[in-house]
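[step 3/7] fold_predict: job queued, chain A
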Amino acid sequence: MRSIWKGSIAFGLVNVPVKVYTATEDHDIRFHQVHAADGGRIRYDRVCTICGKSVQFADIDKAYESPDGDRVILTDEDFAKLPAAEKHEIPVLQFVPAEQIDPILYEKSYYLEPDSSTPKAYVLLAKTLEEVNRVALVHFTLRQKTRLAALRVRDGVLLLQTLLWPDEVRAVEFESLDGVAAPKKQEMSMAETLVDTMSDDFDPDLYTDEYQIELKRLLDEAIASGSGKVTRAPEPAAPEMDAEVVDLVAALQRSLEASGRKAPAEPAAKKTAKSTTKAAAKKPAKKAAKKAPTKQARKGA
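[step 4/7] structure written:
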């Protein structure tokens, strides 16, 4: 894994240096968009609607349009003026019972690794969270965006999970549920019995992504069969000697010549191989020389 952020957890007056790693990964197979007629790759270009020219990402600002159609363009300097938590600090705000955080609020997970030669403070914080059975609410700033996050322990490692803000969770009201009669006692009893028969401890290894497995099998079979849907990758070009290496060898050769010394002798094995090659090359020439007089004699006859 590769760390994406470095900083420290501010736990009262205790400072805990950490490195942040993405805790999850997407195993979905990626596809490119291609032209159905000839298989050409579809490319996307950032084109200005006014001048019609392609625009580099560095030359792009962000614009906001109000419901009335007014537009405001902001630059990086404008965003830098906005209030945000310290970019390289994760301040602990408070400690709360884990069951009080609705799972719908959890967003993305990150592992925290101690970034110190003596990770005593890291272990202290992790053990404390385990003992009190609480999670720490913190602020976490990543890519110029400050999020609320929950800091807890998983298998002895600190795990930071960003949270949605309360107003990011939609309120739900379905009219189809209004006025529906409550289930009867017998219906509830039968439903609870069915739940009991299907109940067990959660084991994530029992569940697999069958769609991705079958998709991978489909792709592997298509490649193996060499069907018309497959375009073979071009043969890799023979490796060429780096121009810098060639120049270095030439420079060393010239240096040796200038000093009046010869290049190092070749190993005996290489000399033997070269001698054998030269001898093999000379043999056909000798045979040709012997046959030449015979041809001349026949010609004279």
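[step 5/7] annotate
The longest strand covers residues 145-154.
Residues 285-301 have pLDDT under 50 and may be disordered.
exit 0
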